[in-house]
Amino acid sequence: MSTSADTSAPAHGELLPTASARRTWSVLGGAVRRTGWHTPLALATVLAGSAAGLVAPWLLGRMVDEVSAGGGLDAVLAPAAVIAVAGVLGGLLTGLGGWLVSRVGETVLARLRERVMDRVLRMPAARLERVRIGDLLSRVGDDVAVVTASIARNGPEVVVALATVVLTGAGMTALDWRLGLAGMLSLPVYALAVRWYLPRSGPYYARERVAMGERSHAMMGALRGRGTVRAYRLEDEHAGRVAERSREAMDITVAVFRLFTRFGSRLNAAECVGLTSVLVVGFWLVRGDLATVGMVTAAALYFHRLFGPLIFLVMNFNEVQSAGASLARLAGVADLPEEPDAGAGEGPADSSVRVESVSHSYGTGAPPALDGVSLTVAPGERVALVGASGAGKTTLAALVSGLRAPTSGTVYLGGIPLDELGERRVREHVFLVSQETHVFAGPLLEDLRLARAGATPAEAEAALETVGALEWVRALPEGLDTVVGEGGHALTAEQAQHLALARLVLADPDVAVLDEATAEAGSSGARNLERAAAAATAGRTTLVVAHRLTQAQTADRVVVMDRGRIVEQGAHADLVAADGRYAALWRSWQGGVDQGERVC
Amino acid sequence: MRGRAPQAEGTCRVSALTTGTPVAEAVRTPAEPPAAPATVRALGGRTLRRNRAHVLAGVVLLSLHQAAEALVPVAIGLTIDWAVVPGDVRALAVCVAGTAVLFTVLATAYRTGARFTLRAVENEAHLLRVEAARRALDPRGERSGLRAGEVLSVATSDAEQAAQYVRAWSSAIAVAVAIIVTTVALLAVDVPLGLGVLVGVPLLMLLLRFPAARITRRSEAKQATAAGATALATDLVSGLRVLMGINARHNAANRYREASTRALEASVGAAASNGLYRGLVTAASAVFLACVAGTAGWMALNGRLSVGELVIVVGLAQFLAEPVQALGMVGQLFATARASARRLVRLLNAPDAVTPGNRSCGEEPLVALTGVGYRTLRDVDLELAPGELVGVVTTDPRDAEALLELLSGRAEPEEVRGTVTVGGVPVHELGLDALRGAVLVEEHGAALFEGSLRSNLAVGTDAGEPRLLEALRSAAAEDLVSGHSQGLDRPIADRAANLSGGQRQRVALARALAADPPVLVLHDPTTAVDAVTEEAIARGVAAARAGTVPARATLVVANSPALLARADRVVVLVRGRVRRTGTHARLVEEDQAYGEAVLR
């Protein structure tokens, strides 16, 4: 709510890198190579399966010739038997090949998405502060889903279709190179159709995506805020907005589809050109005794068999392209440097925190959020930061917890500067409970286990007990196993904050920073949470950004901040007695009516 | 509120007649569209009916397209028979022209038919989407039993899926036409052979149905695990800052790796059954083709078929595999459309949560609760006169919740004892518009909407800029305008994600003040702001509500001493009962429990 939230407005953050086409291929190639002999085996199987598919048209052509020549029954039965055997073999190989290709593709993808998630999760705090959360979400969410869907749905089929096209072309050429050439006459028509379609459809699809996004925004905004919509009688306005945006998106979809069907007609034209060429060329070859009727039949059947795979390949061009774009975005994240290991240097001597003449400003030219602040917190001491919005409390908390590096000055933990300790070590010692709460979707126990993997239910209950949350957790439909978070049992803001404190207890750090942990809980819950926070941080070096002055009242020391400086500090009782700024704040907090002499 | 006692059935019915449902229905019928379809079948029927022109045109043309596709092998056979075998150039010219005509018909039929069908699908999806959104936003509320997230997915993805009913029907018919045309063509060539194919194809379909059902189940399971992994990823990233604060990123990465591996296993499993199915289809159609080819070849040897007819039979047998497989897909399409339609019907036909009356307010919108019992509330008396600012302090959040439900007319009359009146009229007899026009309940955590600051403030009011600015000042939120180059037009993102928690709360408050309702009910309006701002807000709210003619009434449900100190009266609710009433100052002095509850 204070400076940090305003300056790091998420809408204007920076984007994560996107890999170049070359880099994407090499990331992909590396992953494919790691699957070892699985990839060549999969490709060989698919090719063999497609080759088996060539047998039937070829033998049918032979059968036509035999029949024309008036052969015996054997001339018919033998090819039929071979067609059946080749078909069964082909089925076996095609099925096996599809499975092998899927397995390779899915494995490559799984390792890639795990790597992406790993890089995102272990992103340095400084970078995390800068990037757009929406960008992160779309990388690990949409992009992974798009690539998964296209690999799972189309991967094997694209490979099989490609193999079929290549081998059938080869088969036609093997019958007679002129027949093969005739079939290939369709290729330029296909190419022209694609060249006509892609540049036209691209912008349309982009507009369609935008329109659909707008539509779902309107829908989600209205439905999520149902209560407010009703209270302000905005039903018609919001329903109208949904209808309007839905109609816009529909119009674009219809327009895109018109284009698509025109593309379809061009593909039909390509089929027509190819098929007619094969028949016409075949006609002249047969007339010139250069080929038999059977060969022409086989060639025509071959080409007819290609309709399906060719259309499939061409129509999936788009999808392959968009999967490629998503893949580049994933590769960009996967390429981020790995988090450096914790240095082997000296660890902090104790859990004291020292801030030495620290100044900080968000961006050059911005007014300083902190201005020469020095503060020492003894091990186990509890210090409360007090001040109006923009006084620098949250900034100081962020610097102490190592989420930001100060513009000048140094923060020490146990006598060692934070930047010497390295981010990983800082994270291990200093824990932060911020005003940002999140209940992780899944069983409540699993949420707690994020703080300590393998925590037993008993340990989890003990932690909940410490923060006074056990009672309501037990009252949940399935206690610790109740599914909470997105799509599960909805917890109140107060319960979510309770959970955050229970995680802190389980994680058991030396130093805790609480930033407005009791805000948003509603007034009746705040008191509960204050008790919970006190219990959770007992015995730890604690820095509390006091949103409510009761938090200051129970602290060992109160530090009053104003415009980036420390203006007062001391024990609560002493400060009240001193009748300075803190005393004025305290009176107002207690609801005194003498507000005339407000200082801050 | 009336006729609650079970034995008073007679009264109950009378009161229902005068004030209850029938009146409400009479009021709403003229403005309302006809009732939503009550069953999945009815919904499907309406879908086809209201898009009948497009559906019909689409079906006819797509059937024509399928018939043309079926005739392509016939064209090949005829060309070979008439032109290639005898070497007749004129016949070749005729055949080429015929093929060109066939492809023209094929392409045109597809292009136009697919457009008609898409238009019907999109139009239906649009209508269903808007209908679902309207139902979900209806001020009478709904009791579908769907969770908030589910309502959203019903209005978005289910509306789209249910509209696929159109596509399912037109595909089913077109595919059936393709099969019929093929059969007829085969019968025209040779009756016993045609009959054989006619029996063989359904047999083949039946054979493949069982693995198809299994494969659908497995791929659904696969999609579910993949979606689960993606949901986990986005959930973890949404809580990334929380994870970072408690050093849980390592655990989170491990958890994702497990989920990703599970998704991989499910995918590979599904790919195996997919491959098996694909292999089966390939093998089965090859064996079938071999049988047909063998028989047709034998017939050709005997002179019962010409060479071209042999090609036709073989080509048709090859082609048949496509519509047969498509029929299986149509079954899936129907199944998903039906499942979505079921959820839609549930939402559209959900009973109203409240049945409002149709009376309008009296002159003075005085709010009075007399002997009210509802949920946790017991025997509550509360009065709010014009010009008054009354505070309500609760120790149990459920009491506050119940009070807000009563005042916003969301409580069911049957569950309420005593009377709640606004302007002398019982709330349940008031029309919804009358009630919402008189009483605005601003809930804690009310939603803001995507748009601009201005569009968010100017809801429920046609007030000009000066009043909006004044409302912002009263809510101590003028820094949002003065500190921003675009002023009132600064953009607000979806869910106001570009504002901090405190800013959101102050904007929501300013919106409520700008609406300037006769009675304003505020719930915990200052939980996310610091003490100084809270003080300013208390001052601003009191001044804004007092400074208007006619005088406005305000009820503040909060435990904030700053707000309570400005109330004319404070009502203390303990365990659902009014424990005390008095000014803040007096209560602080006289009631220790009160002091504990609000003097933090």
Written description of the protein model:
The complex is a heterodimer of chains A (600) and B (600). Chain A has helices at 3-7, 21-34, 38-69, 74-121, 125-130, 133-175, 177-184, 186-224, 226-231, 235-287, 293-315, 317-334, 393-400, 418-421, 423-429, 444-449, 457-466, 470-475, 493-507, 523-537, 549-553, 572-578, 581-589; strands at 353-360, 370-377, 382-386, 408-413, 416-417, 430-433, 442-443, 483-484, 511-515, 541-545, 557-562, 565-570. Chain A is α/β, with parallel strands linked by helices. In chain A, the strands form 3 sheets. Chain A has a 6-stranded mixed beta sheet with strand order 6-9-10-3-11-12, sandwiched between helices. In chain A, strands 2-1-4-5 form a 4-stranded antiparallel beta sheet. Chain A has a two-stranded antiparallel ribbon with strand order 7-8. Chain B contains 20 helices and 12 strands. Chain B has a 6-stranded mixed beta sheet, with helices on both faces. Chain B has a 4-stranded antiparallel beta sheet with strand order 2-1-4-5, with helices on one face. A two-stranded antiparallel sheet of chain B has the order 7-8. The longest helix of chain B is centred in the middle third of the chain and has 53 residues, at 249-301. Classes of the chains: A alpha/beta (600), B alpha/beta (600). At the A-B interface, helix 3, helix 4, helix 6, helix 8 and helix 9 of A face helix 4, helix 5, helix 6, helix 7 and helix 8 of B.
